[in-house]
Fold each of these.
Amino acid sequence: MIQPWKSEEQRYEYPLQPTDLVIDAGCYEGDFAAGMDARYGCQIIALEPVPQFFQNCVHRFSLRPNIRMLNYALFNHDGPMKMGLSNNSSGINSTGANIDVEGIRFATLLQHHVYGQVSLLKLNIEGAEFPVLADIVESGLMPRIDRLQVQWHGIENFQREYGMLRDKILRTHTHVWGENPLFWESYELKR
């Protein structure tokens, strides 16, 4: 049975150990990474493509050797890409000034930066969760993710795209909490 969304605190409640790896894609100001570090002291790879947000997080976590910052946008291809930046919001569908950022596929991230299982993949990537998760599914890499936490963002044909992608995720993962797809949802690898 899918548990309802309770509160922001629920996003931090996972059975993690200091040796577990959390990937925080869409780190922004680093609050999620900081929260997971404070609770579990786990290993964290945090991705933030926007240079100013990235630099702020590098400074914020400079004394935390278990948190590694990478200046990338998790996406469905490697290499240069454009994203919109408007005030404190950014993303592939964001209006505002276009900025050049570096994209990285999940497969490439695993190949170069991850050794072993991903205990938690958190996605808050402003609409890019659709192409990213589709790429992860198509690459056969979903079983490398123990837990997935995703904030879905409205895109064109949202219900259809969400439904098709969710069906693919449910082949390998169980929907644990979050009943409204426009809020946070959490999935866990079937054992």
Amino acid sequence: MLNAIHYILLGIISNIGQDFSFLREIKYLQESKSCIHIVNILDVYIVNSSINLVLEYCDFDLEKVIKDKNILLHASHIKCYMQMLLQGLQFLHSKFILHRDLKPANLLLNDRGIHYKININIFNYNPIIFI
């Protein structure tokens, strides 16, 4: 199984000290494990001055699929993607979580089995390592 490691470099964000908004986002990811349309967080660990998150690896995002002229999206694909997106958003909203950066680049796709699965990335940091 392939995983993505996201890192957050801890440091002084402003003149008032640390920005701890990432803790809220980690909590949201941990609370969202029961939804198949939200990226799963597998582990959190600290190394030196960074927090590292181990997340499930997703093959690509919807933005790359849309921009790739070699991929033809049929109406059935779009309907399926929209249904998965709305189910994921319904789950988030039922937990009073509002996604503030919903865009195709944050809709991650997995090829697990026969069909693709959309995962909503609620964490806004880029992966650095795939293991």
Amino acid sequence: MGILCQFTRTDHGWCCSTCGYTYPKPIPRPPHRMCGPVASKEPPPDPAPLIARLAEETKHPGKVGPELPPLHVQAVSFVTAIAQLAGDGFRLADKKEFDRRVAICEACDLFIPKSGRCSKCGCFGSLKARGRVWTCPEGYWDV
């Protein structure tokens, strides 16, 4: 792994103060480029191990906590929550109530820390805690 070029603006574009690479086009921001020779003799790293690791992590989100409910349950929960919020005039919980709700969510067994979501309804805890009319599906906090 290398470092990014340290570009400075010139009259004709951008120039790296470390490797001397010049980007000839006058664009607003410098380009992102790994510092070093223009053409590398080394082959790029094999992406297969990284892809395999990411696939494995994605396959087992339950290792960090419970899994999310089925998509149709999440959809019904979302539509219901939006209707409730609209019916309440889109009013939000005050800061003290919001902080209390978030603390309860984060301490709950149904909370998935990696995603910040509830495994009962699929909501994002910090978002659902914001709506004044919204309640916890397990009854841990209410209006």
Amino acid sequence: MPDPHARRDPVDRPMTRLRWLFVGYALLLFTLTHMPRLAVPMGPVPRADLLQHLVAFGGWSVLFTACGFFGRWNSGRNIARSAAVGVVYACIDEGLQAVPVINRVFGWDDMLFNVIGILAGSALVHIIGRKGRTTEAHRTPRGTGA
């Protein structure tokens, strides 16, 4: 039985912090997307909120995938499953805005940009992870079985 008083492996600490960062980000995003009568300043760019949806859900996707809930953060399985969870969440998040009590407006275009953000975040993690896998392959000496 593991010693409950033993110090945790320092390698686990960054992952724990990352998961707490994700939880904070997810709670903030949920709050902002469901706050009644939230007015988003548009500025000179028409429908600038669509870019905000893309960036916000892209950030959600990068953090969720980096947490490695489905395996190593840069594995194809983790990236694909995280993307699937993200797409479902993005649709639910936008769909909840149609509930009258929330006093928000559902938009197909908003949901589309939520999903595009999720997929863009997943693609970014895939690109970064692919580079990481290539770098790791070059570090491992051939023939060592490591």
